[in-house]
Automatic annotation (TrEMBL):
The keyword Transmembrane helix applies. This is NADH-quinone oxidoreductase subunit H. It comes from Sphingobacterium puteale. Its main location: membrane. Keywords: Cell membrane, Membrane, NAD, Oxidoreductase, Quinone, Translocase, Transmembrane, Transmembrane helix, Ubiquinone. The chain crosses the membrane at residues 6-29, 76-99, 119-139, 160-178, 190-211, 248-268, 280-303, 323-340. HAMAP family: NDH1_NuoH. The keyword Transmembrane helix applies.
Amino acid sequence: MEWSFVIEKLILVSVIFVITLVIAMYSTLAERKIAGFMQDRYGPDRAGIFGLLQPLCDGGKFFFKEEIIPAGAHKVLFIVGPTIAIITACISSAVIPWGQELQIGDRVVSLQVADVNVGILYMFGVIALGVYGIMLGGWASNNKFSLMGAIRAASQSISYEIAMGLSIIALLMVTQSLSLKEIVAQQSGFVNWNIWAQPLGFIIFMVCAFAECNRVPFDLPECETELVGGYHTEYSSMKLGLYMFSEYINMFVSSALMASLYFGGYNFPFMNDLGLSANWITIIGVIVFFLKIFGFIFFFMWVRWTLPRFRYDQLMNLGWKMLIPLAIANIVLTGVFTLIKDTYFSS
């Protein structure tokens, strides 16, 4: 293995890691600004111009607050919980293609950390591991409210991962690939975006993404009105910060995944008709990709300050009695349309 390749990947990993943390950090400010706008009030506006330094103040508070571990807690697992949550959140973006290739001198640089031919399976595996951080943190706290939140998180994850996986099966029937790079490359034209072929699958996937990220109206694991703070009731200082950061990172990665699977990723209309160099097309594509991601993040926040949370029985009924049957029906319809297409239009 060439050292230049290793250095190239290390630089790419570092850039993506920094961008992820910055977006997660300023998502906390955007959340409060959007909430303020929708509630006809100002959000944070004291720290810096327009409150732009507020996330730095919040981060400093997390770093310098006293570390508290409850006397009855399992000390090792109490620390392992948030550690697993933040690690799984950060490594989930390794297979996302952020743009086309860049030509730098004699080297062709890929804007994807790892081009795994089973990238979707990797994403699902990492997402499934993330709930263990919540479960361990809730159980190790030795607090009944934390344990209840952890149990809710586990059952919610099991329920909605099934529907999410079934929605992806229908998409795979259309794309014939598990590689995120290939799936994005197939959507080179606006009419080729998978949202037109899989509108129902996208809606199911998006609803499940809300549940996987524990966002309103699916934030039952940390429901303040019932469980104080849910699974992180006993957490303080930077360990609480890691849980909060992992939630916003998961929201960012989920937005990137939805943009990649259904909205063309870095592709944009008329990208091949601009007459620009390949490098400029790649740079514009990266910018467009992040604009799509920011659009989804805004939608996550808009829903939070618009809809009330479900009761727990409503959440379970939606997952098992509505989304899973709809996802199965979507697979059947996709199979029927694919068969008709191959039979009558293949020639």
